[in-house]
């Protein structure tokens, strides 16, 4: 089996310091969390940015500072969010793509998102895909429900996405696909040839789904964006602690952890030096 790619989703847009006291917020805190996650076995960091008051921002300058600080310390793959926070405009959400990070997320459909709606109109999805092509950024297709795979395949036909694709299944968001093994199997069956995939289970589903992915030959995403607990009722001490656990369990069942260089090869990204 291929080595495991671990993505650390360090910050997110919705989690607060009140809920998770160790949530990194400033560029320095986020870069420190990225470094610790990389040391624990993460080969990709999925980034969101925050303003000094803790609210979400897609400001290119804030992302630039986070990326600069991470790059000083390690060669982890940088993946910026284009989801941002619910209610942001497409132009706002696309700002970090202009920095030409190696990867960016691309959600290929709208979805109820707790009490909100995460809106991704067909027109905006095409615009996001075109902008990523223009800046040479590899998309990670974020799948909250099965129709989003169908839409990604349509974008391939339109020439807006290029095979092989990399998908991330975000399972267990209230209003979206449930965090079950059945869902995961169904989504994996829908993928085009040579696709790579990871799973991000929300809340208590993070660990069981990650374990399924380890055994199925998929990849995993963990971190405070998706889950703030280590176990029921016990908050995690850091993002790195969640990365370290899935790395340890994966090794225990005989699956080694990929370095950023190995992950770049698996994902078809160009090699870089730190
Ligand atoms: N914050 C969510 C509304 C992404 O990063 O691309 C969207 C999100 C997905 O987090
Ligand atoms: Zn995100």
Could you give the topology of this structure?
Blueprint: E1 6-9, H1 27-40, E2 44-47, E3 49-50, E4 56-57, H2 60-71, E5 77-80, H3 90-94, E6 103-107, E7 111-113, E8 116-118, H4 122-135, E9 138-143, H5 147-157, E10 166-171, H6 181-190, E11 196-201, H7 206-216, E12 219-222, E13 229-231, E14 234-235, H8 239-252, H9 260-267
Parallel strand pairs: 1-2, 1-12, 2-5, 5-6, 6-9, 9-10, 10-11, 11-12
Antiparallel strand pairs: 3-4, 7-8, 13-14
Overview of the molecule:
This protein has 274 residues and is of the alpha/beta class. 36% of the residues lie in helices and 20% in strands. Strand 5, helix 3 (90-94) and strand 6 (103-107) form a beta-alpha-beta unit. Bound molecules: (5S)-5-amino-3-OXO-hexanoic acid and zinc ion (ZN). Residues 9, 12, 46, 48, 81, 83, 225 line the site of zinc ion.
